[in-house]
Description:
- The chain has one domain (10-168): Phage tail protein-like (STM4215-like, 2-Layer Sandwich).
- By secondary structure, it is of the alpha+beta class.
- Strands 1, 2, 3, 4, 5 and 6 form a 6-stranded mixed β-sheet that branches.
- A hairpin with a 4-residue loop joins strand 5 and strand 6.
- The radius of gyration is 18 Å and the shape is elongated.
- It has helices at residues 10-25, 63-66, 100-104, 110-121; strands spanning 32-34, 50-56, 60-61, 74-90, 140-149, 154-168.
Amino acid sequence: MISQRVATKLEILLLAIRAKLSADLSWDQSRVDLVLSDEKELDQYPKDESFIQISPYRFNVDQPVLTGGGPTDALVMEGSPGIVVTIWKRVNLDRAGRAPAYLTDQTVGVVQLVRKVLKSLTLYDPVDASGNGLLEEPMRPTAMEFRPKRPLDWGKVAIFIEMKYQEDLT
Length: 170
């Protein structure tokens, strides 16, 4: 049970999300990267069949909190979406070009991996060592985007996730 909500730093939240995904998927953390953009060259990544990138996306500062408040040690950041979790998966499972296995296969398909990521992060509410909540409210997915990617033997699914927290400015 969360005793209180506290201000934190974005990098602490990103590392917590990375650790949760790695643990829930039983993946080595080298397959879950923290990046500024998901458009890096695929040659730089493990030759595994899939990997995940977590990118900060967009955060608005809660303006009413600042109005007339004077100096502050924390800003309420409202990310809608705050982060993007991009799943990269090899597409070349179906040589005929239709790639139904890419989507539907229960072992190697991307949809089952999307489901696992959604299960891991939906309503995720990280805490610090004292049990204090690091978010203003649990995380929520807001949208998904399925896209093939060049080279054509890769596909990606971007999951946009809302995240509200207090950025610690100290």
